Amino acid sequence: MDEQLYAVGAKYYDGAYQNNPNLYDVPFYLDLAQRYGGPVLEIACGTGRVLLEIARKGIEIVGIDFSKEQLTVLNSKLLKELERTRNLVRVFHGDMRTFSLDKKFRLAIIPFRPMQHMYTIEDQISALNAAKAHLLPEGILAFDVFYPDYSALLQPLGKETLELEWSAPEEAGHLVRRYIRRTGVNFLQQYFEGEFVFRTFDGDRLIREERSQFKLGYYTYPQLLLLFRHCGLEVLEQYGGFKREPIDICKEMIFLLRPAS
Known about the structure:
Number of domains: 2
Number of strands: 11
CATH architecture of the largest domain: 3-Layer(aba) Sandwich
Number of helices: 8
Strand order of the largest sheet: 3-2-1-4-5-11-10
Order of helices and strands: HHEHEHHEEHEHEEEEHEE
Shape: globular
Structural class: alpha/beta
Oligomer: single chain
CATH class of the largest domain: Alpha Beta
CATH superfamily of the largest domain: Vaccinia Virus protein VP39
CATH topology of the largest domain: Rossmann fold
Strand content: 35-45%
Distance between the termini: 32 Å
């Protein structure tokens, strides 16, 4: 993973996702945290979109992330939280493939697709093994990835599409629009590449443009089952959406795993 890939994205992350009506994952992970109790480990916690909601419910949580820029945003947000919330949170900089904490957890979560930044089998196995190593014997690992949209992968490359827009929180009257452009697809290795284009407008006037490259891997369902088996994990629950729809609806792939008996 290249840490610079996240530098521009960290700046716009909260604006893009905090009030996105198409995201249903926070209630799902919050329910898990309340069901299993703390301490919770969030791997790839980013700017704290999920982590802070869990801490606000009085549940102890530890977060790790590879992006120093995202953690800087998270730490600045923590300063604005109530003391009782801040005291429930610990945050570390670390790589999800190799991190090591002197603690084991009842629940570890990897929300919003960080496993799709694991592009090789070696990285995927390392990430799952690292998460498993931090579970108590009865602990649960929960994560989600999207089901690949093969029709989108077959579309011509280079087309720019408006994806999201929001009001700039620190620039009154300004609007940020995020465009997405796919630049490559590798069907053999199962990943695609592209860039996000962030354009800030004052009315109709463009005042700033920034770009962030991205690369995302994708998985098939049998591939994931084989990875779990290789890493000594077994499926406890599986869903096709955050409202616990059957997995065969093929929207999301969400798993609750436990160490194999």
